[in-house]
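U., I forgot to send this yesterday:
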Amino acid sequence: MLLQGRGSSSFTLGLALTLGATAAAYATSLAYPAEAPFLTENQAAMGKMMADMAVKPSGDIDQDFAAMMIPHHQGAIEMAQAELRYGHNEQLRRIAQEIIVEQQQEITAMHLALGQSPAR
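Result:
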């Protein structure tokens, strides 16, 4: 994590969004039990992404942009991985594979642009 706004109201908002979305995913999984594993993984990825995007402003626009975009891209990667595990549509599976590659490249580029070592 580049920045953590754990004491900030943005973190509280992110946590509230995560909890609300988790409850919605649980309710949906009850209606569609065969989809429950996908929904659970997808919701976990989205919840983590939303919480991690809730950063306290640092005064550095570039740093703040990357601090929000890196978890956004990581969330996309995790959701694409869930599609690969559970999805059946070959076109969507190819798109998911492309998302994983492209978003990881962009995460690396953002770290490098800030003079940081890319995360592994």
